[in-house]
Amino acid sequence: MTALEFDLSDSSFWARPMSERRQAFDLLRRRDTPVFFEEPEISFAPKGPGYHALVRHADILEASRNPEVFSSGQGGATNIPDLPPEFAEYFGSMINMDDPRHARLRRIVSRAFTPKMIKQFESDVETAAEKIVDDLLVTGPGCDFVTEVAARLPLKIICDMMGIPERDYQFVFERSNMILGGFDPEYVGTDVEGIAERLLTAGMELQQLMQDLAAHRLDNPTGDLTSSLVNANIDGERLTSQELGSFFILLVVAGNETTRNAISYGLRLLTKNPDQRELWRQDFDKHAPTAVEEIVRLASPVNFMRRKVTRDHVMNGNQYRQGEKVVLYYWAANRDPAVFDDPERFDITRQPNPHVGFGGPGPHFCLGAHLARREITVMFRELLRRVPGIEGHKPDRLHSAFINGIKHMECVF
């Protein structure tokens, strides 16, 4: 590529080799102003006015710090076209809200994700990781690392937190794949016209699962998070039934999909960089904090979030008009050479590492970052201790503009 001969709104761009994606974003970063793209056409939403692609680290930090100018609540943050009203019932979670509604919901649910609360789950995470590696050793090499290892840990922890029984794990896994399946025919099929119906059905089924459990927990509380949310007022507030359902969808989709992909990319990075694997293995605890941050930086499981400009505004020398859209490409910002020395190099000792893999600073920073870091740490501690030679080969990437995912990856050891 020697010119802007690509379109970020074209679904085929996101199926191109990763080397071409890197080159495309390098070209975008070199432009004096953010490049404007037409919006993608989808069957279930009207085509909007287009968007500015923010690919520089500095732009994403600034937009994230100014939610009153760059709104998440006007049409949704998780998609470029505005969400139709019927989607809000299932996908209208706090990630797609502005204050004060966002602040209210985050205040209610955030107490489950403090470092103190996450510490209470540490033994559960460790026990789950041990069982996963036990099963991996029985299954043997040649299996799918994503489904047999990476996906199992976050799915179990989140379901256990909410009180979802093990018999429903696969149900939750399949629906979350469908919601974040992007353009991938393995998850959403080839019937483009039917995508909206499948998304709404998956959202409805997950919300119904949570609402049924919540109704039961009202009279039969346990120690799970669902019981806490439906039975206890927090500062005089509690979630409505619809809010609880939407929060559950956000939790299982964001918490499961993103951590799964970070773990999958982590193994791939260690496979391609055996010197870094050996360095980490020799002193795991010393390097774990910086290694996990470096995995998240290069994995960048969420490619982007979208914002809508609420008033005319100048940011870093560029003018944005009220009503315009900007798309924050975290994947690109995490490779910005103005911030990261030799950005494509995997360095488990990299410090500082101001990546935006958990979102930029501000009110929408990932609520589950503590839990995700813990799960990634525990999973790799168990793998490098018991299966030190494990390698991830032939990653089958998800065809999605939103999620930087790996669907399948053969592992050998």
Structure, described:
The protein is globular, with a radius of gyration of 21 Å. With 413 residues, it is α+β, with helices and mostly antiparallel strands. The two termini are 38 Å apart. The chain has 17 helices and nine strands. The mean pLDDT is 92. Strand 5 and strand 6 form a beta hairpin.
Distance between the termini: 38 Å
Helix/strand/pairing category: alpha+beta
What ranges have pLDDT less than 50 throughout 5 or more consecutive residues? none
What string, H for helix and E for strand, traces the elements in order? HEEHEHHHHHHHHHHHHHEEEEHHEE
Radius of gyration: 21 Å
Q: Give the amount of beta strand, in percent.
A: 5-15%
* Principal-axes shape call: globular
Neighbour order of strands in the largest sheet = 1-2-7-4-3
Percentage of residues assigned to helices:
40-55%
The biggest beta sheet reads: 5 strands, mixed
Question: Features of this protein?
Answer:
single chain; 413 residues; alpha+beta; 5-stranded mixed beta sheet; two-stranded antiparallel sheet
Task: Give a brief outline of the structure.
The protein is α+β, with helices and mostly antiparallel strands and 413 residues long. It is built from 17 helices and nine strands.
Helix-strand layout with pairing:
Elements: H1 18-30, E1 36-37, E2 51-54, H2 57-65, E3 70-71, H3 85-91, H4 101-109, H5 115-120, H6 122-139, H7 145-150, H8 152-162, H9 169-179, H10 185-188, H11 195-219, H12 225-231, H13 241-272, H14 274-282, H15 284-299, E4 304-309, E5 313-315, E6 318-320, E7 325-329, H16 330-333, H17 369-386, E8 391-397, E9 406-412
Parallel strand pairs: 2-7
Antiparallel strand pairs: 1-2, 3-4, 4-7, 5-6, 8-9
